[in-house]
Structure formats: structure tokens, C-alpha cells
Amino acid sequence: MGQLDKTRPFVITGLLLGLLMASLDNTIVATAMPTIVTRLGGLDIYSWVFSAYLLTSTTFIPIFGKLADLYGKKGFYLLGLILFVLASVLCSTASTMEQLIAYRALQGIGASAMFPISFALIMEIFPPEARGKMQGLFSAVFGISSVAGPTAGAYFTEHLSWHWIFLINLPLGILAAILIAGFLKLPARRVEKVVIDYAGAFTLTLAIIALMFGLVMGGKEYAWDSWQILSLLIGSGVLTLLFLFIETKAKQPVIPLRLFNAGLTSSTGTAFLQGVILITASSYIPLFIQGVIGGSAVNAGNLLTPMMLAVVAGSTVGGILSAKLPFRPMMLIASVFMAGGTYLLSRITMETTNTYMILSMIVLGLGIGPLMPITMMLTQVSVGRENIGIGTSLITFFRNIGMALGVSVMGVIVNSRMQDTMVDLGTKFKVPPQFADMVKEPQALFSEQARQFIPPEVFTHMQQGMGGAIADVFLICVGVAVACFLFSLLAGKASLAMLKQGGPGGGGGPQTTRSDDRQQKPSTV
Prior knowledge:
Blueprint: H1 2-40, H2 48-59, H3 61-71, H4 73-92, H5 97-125, H6 128-159, H7 164-167, H8 169-183, H9 198-217, H10 227-249, H11 262-293, H12 297-321, H13 327-345, H14 354-383, H15 388-428, H16 448-453, H17 456-489, H18 497-500, H19 515-519
Helix pairs in contact: 1-5, 1-6, 1-8, 2-5, 2-9, 3-4, 3-5, 3-15, 4-5, 4-8, 5-6, 5-15, 6-12, 6-14, 9-10, 11-12, 11-14, 11-15, 11-17, 12-14, 13-14, 13-17, 14-15, 15-17
């Protein structure tokens, strides 16, 4: 046993390096994008650098989760890791924005295997009493990447070149692959007969692609009520219904619908709503600081740090406490913190101080953090050992969908409010002709030139409009947090102790683990 304990830290290090590399990628890229645009051009399509990654990383998550359950987690994790590193190298060689977007899409496919399988492997290599602490540690990586990413991106861009934001993944990925390949030992899987659900995989992929394209392009490339966006959203709904029908007939469905007992419904619903709140806070707090209060981008990043540190702290504490407490009370308390944090943020105005912002974000972060490991563990308890891969992937999948839907819906609300504000300018104020073009767009709020030359009363009216719009989206998030509280109630009495007692509980849901799975001890490293 001593030798096994000696190798386990190498596996943990490898998994953490891979997870850090993939989660760091978006935050580190965001800082360098202005520089990349000046080198490659393509300002009109640069947002697809992020959208392409989100699209593919979300689409393939449930498919890789199912394949990992059928054929083994180690192989597909290494496949995702290698694909991600190769795509990173390709990104560093991009000479046009179109090439960069294509390579980022390839990166997303690699990430779609790495994220869910990382958490599923915790189930394989740790006994129940240690899983809470490890889930908290792994979930904290997301908060760390949010804090370190912008700083690292700025450093590489300023002192080296933008290419290094991608090339840094090469040594990290190679080291992670060596550690995982060399030290991770899992029991051999015996799959008597595999019937691939091609129809289910195909319709699910098309449904997600249609939805993501609709959410990404809605309100930007096309109006929300345009035939292009409506066709995508309606088509996604039809394909989803077709997918659900196919899954009821498939022998080995991509997503077994029988898994959705009370526990899995609670965890996936909570993850979806948590994604809405997380993306709203990450997107609109910096917008408020820069556009309403008048802070710099650096100031906005610094003010976000306390929230991210609170997410890390909450994630770590939640993971540790889950080894001793049932999931439901912790989820309920976290939901209350999220409701409190979003309510405090819904009261922000032009006169709001930095201290108030920091305290509000800390409260919100302490609510978001614990839900990351707890939803993962609730899923593992709920679905049974043979479905850990697909179950864990569903958490990441629903959180990503929540983030995509959240940023789209909140964007519509803010844009609508700002359009009303711009219309009011023409009726309440007489804007000098030389500033007429400058105040037509809300982007003037982020221009230092606009702050100096636009009449103060006009600029203040624009700030109030932006502040009110952002306060409104946080007020909506209070309702989202309340819905999260209700989903948490479905967790029942589920806890990690259920795994020690021989099987999943699923918060009162049906038991899905076979008797031979219950006798199988956690694999060792």
C-alpha cells in the first residue's frame, strides 16, 4: 500500500496540471486578444475565438463522457489532453483570424474530454471519505485560473509575444501526459458487447450546435427575432425532442434517461443555474466598474479577484465539509449566499463604493464556490459507478449551457435598457452636434475621450442607464438563486456516506448501480 500511496501524488499533479491548462486557456486568451487583433486583423469575427471554443467544448462533453464509461477513462483523457496540446501549438502558428478560430474549435474538443473525465477519475482513485476534499481542490482550479489568467496573459503579451499564451500549454501538457500515462493504473474494463448509439450522438450533436449558434449569434450577427436565429432555436428544440425519443429506444443510449432521478435532477439543475449567475457576475461586474464607476480594466480585474478567491475558498471548504455532512443543507446555504450576493449587487449605483462591491462579490463567491464540488459529488452518488463518466460530464455540460444562455439573455436585457437610454438622450438633453455621433453608442462610456468632451449631464445620464441595466440583471439573478434553492431541495438525504454504505442514494432516486459494482473497491494508483 505504501508504494501505491507514493504514486498517487503524481497522478493528482498530472490531473491538476491538465485541468489548470484547460481552464486557464479562456482567461489568458482574453487579455491577449486586443494584441492578436492588431496582428491578425479580423475584428469583426474575433468573438468567435471564444465562441468556437465554447461551442465544441460543450457539444462533445456528453459524448466523451459516455465513451469513457464504455471504453475506459484513462485513454480518452489522454486523447483529449494530446488533442488540446496539439491544437494549442497550432493556435500559436495562426496567421489569420480564421485559422485561429478553427484551431480554437479543435482545442475545445480536447477540453470536452479533459474536464468531465478529470472529476470522474476522482471516483476511480479515491475512497469515499477522500473524494470531497479532492473535488474541492479540483474545483478550486477554476477560481485560480480566473485570478491568474489575465495577469499571465498580460505578462506573456507584453514581455514575450502573444504566441506564448498558447505555447505555455506544451510543457504543461507534456508533463501532465507523462504523469497520467506512467502512474495512473485503473482496473481493466470488461465490455461484453457495445452497441454505439450513433443516432443519439448525431441528433444530440446537431441539437447542441444549433442551440449554441443561436445563442452566440443572437443579438449580434442577427436580431433575436430574425428567421436565422428562430430557425436555429426551433430546430434545436425539435432535434432535442427527437434525441429524447431515440434515447428511450437505444440499447446503450448516449445519455441514459433513467439516470435522471431526484439526485441527478438536483445537481444538473443547480449547475445550470449556477452557470447563469457565474457568467453574469464575470461579465457585468467589470462592465459596471469601467462604464459606470469609471475604473480602468486593471481596476476591474483587481476588484474581481476577491470574488474569485471567495469561490476558491468556498469550493475548498465545501469539498471538505461534504465528507461529513449531507449535500442538501450545504447546497441550500450556498443558494442563500448567492441570493444575498446578487441582491446586494442589484442595489449598485454610480455612488457605490469599492468596499461595497468587494463585500458583495465575496458573499456571491462564497455561494458559487461550494456548489462546484458538491454538484459533482451528488451526481456520483446518484448515477452509480458504471455511469460516472456520463454523469460527471452532464454537470459540466449543463453549467456551460447555463453560461451560454445566461450571457445571451442578460445581454438582451442590458442592450434593451441602453437603447431606451439612448432614445431618452434626444428628448431630455440637447446634445451638441459635434458629440452626436459619439453618444449614439453605449461604447462611449468606455472612452476616455468621451469622458472629457461629452457634456457632464449627458454622460451622467448614460452612466445611470448602464448602471440601472446591470442592476436589473443582478435582480433577475436573485430569482435564479431562488430557483437554485428549490433544485437543492431535491437532493434529499444524499451524502458521501452512502458510498461507504454500499451504493448510491440519488437523493431518494432509484438505485442504478449493479451489485457487482458495489463490491468493487476504488481503484488504486
